[in-house]
Amino acid sequence: MKISRKVWLILGAVILVAALVSVYVVYSGQAGERDALNERLSRAETLLPGLTANRNDLENQLAQAESSLNTSQAQFPQVLESIEYGEDFFKIAYGQNLYAMAGGCGVGITRLTASPPTDKKVGTVTYSVSSFVVVVEGNIDNILKFIDAIGTGIDYDLTWNFQLPWSVDVKNVKIDIGGEGSTATINLDIYGYKG
After folding, report:
1. Distance between CA 168 and CA 188 in Å, rounded?
2. Which of 160, 97, 116, 106 is nearest to 136 (CA)?
3. What pLDDT, on a 0 to 100 scale, did the predictor assign at position 47?
4. Could you say which of 29, 44, 118, 126 would form a disulfide bridge with 194 (CB–CB 3.0 to 4.6 Å)?
5. Which of 105, 183, 118, 112 is nearest to 148 (CA)?
6. CA angle at 89 for the pair 74 and 85, rounded to the nearest 5°
């Protein structure tokens, strides 16, 4: 069976139209994708300067935080040594320390700072002396009880053993009386026997 030329032309035209339709569908789909990508790119380019400035700000904040951390870390060992030193001196009979004593008197310590210990020689005896600043909060009666306990060595529940190799000299007390609570700043020196 012989196919006529007319049939071949129709068949060729159908194949050509089908190919053109396929190419148009693919092209229009890609054109839509390209438009969406161009729109996203435009939005990203609009956001980029703000994000870059934000990143620079965050990098500056990070550099400042790292600098502050390094400064704090450089100071921390001395402060830690002072706190350990203060707690060693404030240990009393039955393992109590200054914090427990404050709790027993009904006040709370809000700040405890200490100077590094220095040696002081009296005759043939050498003492290790450290100055402390203790800030406490509570009602006025309990603050006065705490100050008395430090100065006299009496803990109201237990009598301190004065044979321990340290003593406290209360130098100055400043009390701020407030409506809901009072605060006291106590400056004191602790003398520890070095031998």
Report:
1. 7
2. 106
3. 87
4. 126
5. 105
6. 10
DSSP reduced 3-state for 131: strand
Separation of alpha carbons 134 and 141, rounded Å: 17
CA distance linking residue 182 with residue 107, whole number of Å = 10
88 is written with which tokens?
Answer: 């060693």
- 105: its two tokens: 């008197």
pLDDT digits (tens, 9 = 90+) for 14-52: 999 999 999 888 888 888 888 888 898 888 889 888 888
pLDDT of residue 30: 87
Residue appearing with tokens 């020196």? 189
Report the residue count for the chain.
Answer: 195
Beta bridge partners of 184: 136, 175
Which residue has tokens 């569908």? 25
How many whole angstroms separate alpha carbon 47 and alpha carbon 101?
60
* Residue 45, CA distances (Å) to 39, 41, 52, 116 in order: 10, 6, 11, 58
51, amino acid identity:
L
Q: Which of 99, 171, 166 is nearest to 129 (CA)?
A: 166
Q: How far is CA 142 from CA 22, 139, 184, in A?
A: 92, 6, 11
Amino acid residing at 64:
Q
Tens digit of each residue's pLDDT (9 = 90 or more) over 106-149: 888 888 887 877 888 878 888 778 888 889 999 888 888 888 88
pTM of the model: 0.47
CA pair distance 78, 52, nearest whole angstrom: 40
